[in-house]
Amino acid sequence: MRFVLNKVGLLALTLWAAITLNFLLPRLMPGSPADAALAKLAQNGPVSPATKAAVEAQLGVPTGSMWEQYLSYLGSVARFDFGVSYTFFPQSVAGLVTAALPWTIILVGLVTIIAFIFGTLLGVLAAWKRGTWLDTLPTVGGTFASAFPYFWTALLLVFFLGYVGGWFPTSGAFSRSATPEFSLAFVGDALYHAILPATTILITSLGGWILGMRSTMINTLGEDYVTFAEANGLRPRTVALRYAARNAILPNLTSFGLALGAVVGGSLLVERVFAYPGVGYLLYTAVTNQDYPLMQALFLIITISVLLANFIVDILYGILDPRTRR
User: Fold this and answer.
1) Which residues pair with 84 in a beta bridge?
2) Residue 8 resides in a domain
C-alpha cells in the first residue's frame, strides 16, 4: 500500500509540474496569438486600436497579473475549458479534442496493444527456439518490416491496396454517406476504413517488440534460477513463461508504457497520409495554422497520457517484480 501511495504522490507532483509548464511556456514566448492575427491583418493596411481590441477580446487574451492568470488557468483545466479554436472558429477546443480522441485511441491504442502482445510472444518463442526457423523467421521478418518508416509503408499500402487494387479506402475514418452512430453498419464501415492505417502501424512496430523481447529473453535464459527450474523437471512451457519471460518482459514493459502514453498523440504521419480524423491529424492542422489554444490543449493531454501510462507501468512493475517495491 505504501508503494502505491508513493507512486500516486509522484504522479500528482509530476502532473502539477506539467500543467504549470504548459501555462508558462506560451507566456515566455515572444509575441502572442493576438499579435500573429494582427500581423496578418496589417498586410492589408494599418490596424486601428478598435480592431486590435476586438481581436484581443475575440481570442481571449489573458488579463490581470500572472498569479491571477495561473489560478484562472487551473480552473479552466479542471473544467476542460481551453477556449475557442482559431482554425475551426467558433468551435471550442474541448469539442474538437473530444471528437478526435476516440478515433486515435481506438486505432492506435488497440493496434499498439495487439502489436505488443504478439511481438512479445514471438520474441519469447524466438529466444526459446534460438537457432531454428522459429527464431529466424520472426527475427528477420520483424527487422525487415521495422526498417521502413511509418509514412513510407503507409504510402505503399495506399498505392497498391488502395489505388491499384481498389480493395480498401484510401482516406477518412468512414464513408461520406455514413452517419456517425452506434450501429453495426457504421462500426463495420469504420473498421473497413481503419484496416490500412492499422496495418501500417502493426507492420512497422511489430519488429521492435520481437527483437527487444528476444534479446532480454536470451539473457534471462542464462540465469541460475532458470537452470534450477529446468533441473527440477518443470515443463518447458512453464520454465519459458513463468520463470524466464516474467523477468525478461520488464524492459519491454517500460517501452510499452512509453508507447501507450504516446497513443494519445497519435501516429501523426500515418493519420496525415490517410487523412484520419485523430489527434495526430488535428495536431498537424493546429501547428500549420498556428492555432495556439488547440496546440496547448493537445500538448497537455499528450503529456498527461504519458504520465498516466508510466504510472500504470510502475504499478505493474511492483506486481511482476516485488523487489522493485523496495
Assistant:
1) 92
2) no
Q: Give per-residue pLDDT as tens, 190-240.
A: 777 778 888 887 887 787 788 888 888 877 777 777 777 777 777 777 777
Angle at 155 between CA 149 and CA 161, to 5 degrees: 125
Please check the confidence at residue 178 and state whether its pLDDT lies above 70: no
Task: Give the model confidence (pLDDT) of 83-112 as tens digits.
Answer: 777 777 777 888 888 888 877 877 777 788
Task: Give residue for cell 508510466.
Answer: 310
Q: Which residues contact 108 (CB under 8 A, 6 or more apart)?
A: 201, 263, 266, 267, 278
CB distance 180 to 174 below 8 Å: yes
Cβ 265 vs Cβ 280: under 8 Å: yes
H helix count then E strand count, the chain? 15, 0
CB 197 within 8 A of CB 270: yes
d(CA 283, CA 272): 10
* One domain for residues 232 and 294: yes
User: Cα separations (Å) of 127 from 85, 146, 195?
Assistant: 51, 19, 30
At residue 60, does pLDDT exceed 60?
Answer: no
Q: How many domains is the chain partitioned into structurally? A: 2
- Residues 252, 285, single domain; the answer is yes
Domain that holds residue 58: 33-79
